[in-house]
Amino acid sequence: MSDGQDERRLALDVEGTLGAARAGTLTTSRGSIPTPCFMPVGTKGAVGTLDAADLDDLGASVVLGNTYHLMMRPGVEVIERLGGLHRFMGWDGHLLTDSGGYQVFSLEPKVDDDAVTFRSTYDGDLHRFTPEDAVDVQRRLGSDVQMVLDVCPPLPSPPEVLRLAVERTAAWAARARRAFVDSDAPQRGLAQMGIVQGGVDVDLRAESAERTLAVGFDAYALGGLSVGEDRGAMLETLDAIVPLLPEDRPRYLMGVGDPIGLVEAVARGIDLFDCVIPTRFARHGTILTRDGRYNLKKAENTAADVPLDETCGCVVCARYSRGYLRHLLQVGEPTGPRLLTLHNVAWTIALVQEARAAVLLGDLGRVRSDIRRGWE
Amino acid sequence: MSDGQDERRLALDVEGTLGAARAGTLTTSRGSIPTPCFMPVGTKGAVGTLDAADLDDLGASVVLGNTYHLMMRPGVEVIERLGGLHRFMGWDGHLLTDSGGYQVFSLEPKVDDDAVTFRSTYDGDLHRFTPEDAVDVQRRLGSDVQMVLDVCPPLPSPPEVLRLAVERTAAWAARARRAFVDSDAPQRGLAQMGIVQGGVDVDLRAESAERTLAVGFDAYALGGLSVGEDRGAMLETLDAIVPLLPEDRPRYLMGVGDPIGLVEAVARGIDLFDCVIPTRFARHGTILTRDGRYNLKKAENTAADVPLDETCGCVVCARYSRGYLRHLLQVGEPTGPRLLTLHNVAWTIALVQEARAAVLLGDLGRVRSDIRRGWE
């Protein structure tokens, strides 16, 4: 089911490998993305507390947008009238959008073979949403990379739930690919990513991988992980499934962004990551450091004349003390969560960049043990 | 009562005049400040939603800090341990601090000839605060320019209240100057500004000016205006009192920052301004434009593909549409108030810079009529 266009769309040029890990460059019509790459999450048209100029300064290559939130507010029509999601956000870098499925499936929707029916969290209205709708909405948003609508059960789930999720995900993938190929998206240089489901049942997930590959996408994601299972089970699943994915296509582990998860998944050949941890932690006063997560509101920071993380090269660590940043949190100044967000996102991007460099230099083991020391 | 140090401290080099208006440069040990100059208000150690890097980008020359809030949270000791207010905030530009009096007098304090006694809004504790305390706190904060503790009654107030305010302000000014001169502040290149009170009673205010000048300060402020009186009464007071102030000393009109007030006060010879309007309006979704203030939340902006103000050169107007910015407000993203703050502060700084250029070019009348057209 080729789209008849550039077969190289979103192809990965691998520059170096270390075991299963690889460092490379993704090239798109918009530019290039060094991988492994962490994508900050811009839920409602902005990464919380930040704007596009901040994302430039952070050196973010890709930002993830949430289709569910954007189609509810302000709505696709509005974003189209304002020139598409890039121009809406003022962001010239890459945009990857999810399908909306992840949020929708958290709303206890009714799912049938054709579609998912859910009530909007914004106004309570009923919406029916098909795989084709997900393609169309993301195409209209103008995402550089769009995700198929999949069925993502929490873990643990009964075998029959995981089986049904794989069946529907496969059927929906074929419909989504057809809708994508028949649209103007390929001509516009946009790409589409398929999603492998199957929980931590390796056989089921291998089947899902095979069926997703049979449809044929520009890239492949692992969904339905980091949804309740322990990290060991997740990593074993990666060990088993990543080798089944094509080497010249990027691999995206959806929703994983804790430091150990990041470096361990890089070691297993994952290229793309997204996660709300850096932004959500910042909102609650928690910072990411080489020594682990840390609640900055603790009284011991009142007059602490040290940066958030001595090893961090971000603009916040260069300019502000823990004492000042804690003060901003204590008095409720919005500048506080903002500066913590800048740090946490910069820290996470830098960690993945460090892992990339370590793949090329052959010392990823050092990064892995260093992160385990601080975070385990 | 000279401090025996550099008599030129905070002296103003006037580069051009137009009637009573003047454009000049203030030189301090820290650097130079083109005047007229608008000073954004950094109440609790940050200009709301912004950090010091933003203030650099905005080209702010001076930021105002609120002594009351800072001495309550995190406390002077903490700021001293973190290297003083400049280093605490990460801000290398100029800092002017108020005395704390304005906030304290809003708390229905007990005032006697010696001091003011008030309950903290933070923890309800009783505090007694003298003019000498105000000098000492600001000296420890390391403000480049500190203000004397004055008595600032609302308008209208009975004549005896205004009279008592002038008497106490004059007595406290002499005590504050003595405390300042006897401290290490002059040696450190810090400056102190006296405050003229007297409401809109021109005779009383002239007396207050005379008594403040007799004490002798590095600069002179007009306090107790824009506290309830109409703008006409305020401007008539400026017409009468500004000519009584020395030409080589900066003149600061405290708390005025509405666009008409700014340009009309520039026309009357004022050099320095502070006001919370740009930041407070931004917090509530109101933008400053050449056509007046405007509530961006109006539905007509839903898909508005125009900048906040077509005439504005700020980074927000260069990058974002009204539609996008309204969306951020509607969904409660903190990026929304932040971008509006960047615009409103940039807009106000640019207006005062435009007025400065107009003084030098001789066409301040054009700026005044243009602002009156949009704002009256």
Principal-axes geometry of chain A comes out as: globular
Major β-sheet strand ordering of chain A:
4-15-14-13-12-11-7-6-5
On the 0 to 100 scale, the average pLDDT of chain A is 96
Helix content of chain A: 40-55%
Largest interface: A-B, 39 and 39 residues
Largest sheet of chain A: 9 strands, parallel
Global Rg of chain A: 20 Å
- The structural class of chain A is alpha/beta
Tell me how many strands of chain A there are: 17
Distance between the termini of chain A: 45 Å
Going by CATH, the architecture of the largest domain in chain A would be: Alpha-Beta Barrel
Quaternary organisation of the protein chains: homodimer
Number of helices of chain A: 15
CATH class of the largest domain in chain A: Alpha Beta
Number of domains of chain A: 2
CATH fold title of the largest domain in chain A = TIM Barrel
CATH superfamily grouping of the largest domain in chain A: Queuine tRNA-ribosyltransferase-like
Question: Summed up, what is this model?
Answer:
With 376 residues, chain A is of the alpha/beta class.
Descriptive report:
Two copies of one chain form a homodimer. Chain A is α/β, with parallel strands linked by helices. Chain A has two domains: 264 residues, Queuine tRNA-ribosyltransferase-like (TIM Barrel, Alpha-Beta Barrel), CATH 3.20.20; 92 residues, no CATH class. The first copy, chain A, has 15 helices and 17 strands. In chain A, strands 4-15-14-13-12-11-7-6-5 form a nine-stranded parallel β-sheet. The first copy, chain A, has a three-stranded antiparallel β-sheet with strand order 1-2-3. In chain A, helix 10 runs parallel beside helix 14 and helix 11 runs antiparallel to helix 14. The longest helix of chain A is centred in the C-terminal third of the chain and has 27 residues. Chain A starts with 11 loop residues before the first strand and ends with a helix. The mean pLDDT of chain A is 96.
